[in-house]
Amino acid sequence: QVHLLESGGGLVQPGGSLSLSCTASGSDFNIIAMGWYRQAPGNQRELVAMVTRAGATEYADSVNGRFTITRDNAMDTVYLQMNSLKPDDTAVYYCTFQGYSGDRRADYWGQGTQVTVSS
Question: What would the DSSP string read from start to end of 41-97?
Fold first, then answer.
């Protein structure tokens, strides 16, 4: 079993910055990718950014150039630096770790952290 602990988030004014982090703990889990999704009220959960263990990244068009995803493989931690935040970025942000437990494909999710962009 893998447990994800998120931190960061909060309230920020438009144009401001926030950072999120998420650390995985557990055993027998081979991580292949980690990242962030978000869900705003009334919307479906959507991809924000993903990074593979090798460092390849993927960003949603809406955040490309403003958000940066990084990872620390040794610490099993993923970070999301969010700059130039807009009110449309307001959502609950969920981290996810994707990989294998033994031969079984497994995805784990954090509990979610609220990001609110408002003046």
Answer: TTS--EEEEEEETT--EEE-TTTBTTEEEEEEGGGTEEEEEE-S--GGG-EEEEEEE
